Amino acid sequence: MQTRVAVIGIIVEDGSSVAPLNALLHEYGKYIIGRMGVPYRQRDINIISVAVDAPQDVISALAGKIGSLHGVSATAAYSKVGK
Question: Given 3.30.70.1150, 3.40.50.300, 3.40.920.10, 3.40.630.10, which CATH number is that of 4-73?
Fold first, then answer.
């Protein structure tokens, strides 16, 4: 199965969505290379980047599910190289 490396950029504006977001990331944990979160206290938001190595449809599904959470935005940036 061909996979791609991507980064999913996530902005969390509603703190009540953190638990469902973490549950989604746990569900897709086998594809996650690493993650970094930065709380931006002046704006009361959290900025998270998640590096993944997965089939493109899995990455799209995860980004879509994350973006459907209330007060959460997500965008995926893909590498040009697949394996």
Answer: 3.30.70.1150
